[in-house]
Write a structure and sequence with these properties.
By secondary structure, this protein is α+β, with helices and mostly antiparallel strands. Helix content is 41%, strand content 19%. The protein has a domain of 77 residues: GMP Synthetase, Chain A, domain 3, CATH 3.30.300.30.
Amino acid sequence: MTRFQELFGKYKYVLIVLAAGLLLLILPKTDSGSGDSSVLARDGPGLHSAYSQTPDEAKLSALLSQIDGAGEVRIALSENGAVVISQSSAASVRLELTNAITAYTNLTSNKIIILKGEVTQ
């Protein structure tokens, strides 16, 4: 028996698991329709949501849009974080948006992502 065959026989299950893991990493992710539907998608020049905002999200979006310089704002909330689309990319506006979301949701600032984009309904 050659050295390779000996090692393969001894570690074949480990190699099979590694090969399966690599295969899963290489395959593209597909959305089966189940899971969190609060994903924002880019389609054309502006951003649109693939879901309807909850009443809390709509209320918070309207409130955040009133922050000076923020422009139109749209927010998607989950238990683990918040994604915000704002027409402004100014650092001071981003800080104000983060502070307001933190106060409203008790999320920490590292769980809040603010992106610049066109908000379309």
